[in-house]
Amino acid sequence: MPSMPDPKPRKAMHARRHKEPRYNSTKWRKYRRAFLALSPLCVECGRIAEVVDHIKPVRLGGDFWQPLNHQALCHQCHNSKSGKESHQRPTYG
Question: Which of 18, 62, 78, 85 might form a disulfide with 56, Cβ 3.0–4.6 angstroms?
């Protein structure tokens, strides 16, 4: 009788969430928690913020760890902003 193949081992949930390894670090998760505690509302609409957004995207030259490059956003506003940014070309220099 054929047997079922062994299931592939799964990565921990936080390790699957982002391709960028810095987002999976303990340092980022602690920073994110502290940032949202100080800025609990979305800067766009005033709802509860759930995302620490990079004002200038890292892929477009923004500084990953610079607090002045961060803003609190709700998921809806973050998804809207990210969708618009995905159509921008990277700038160098």
Answer: 62
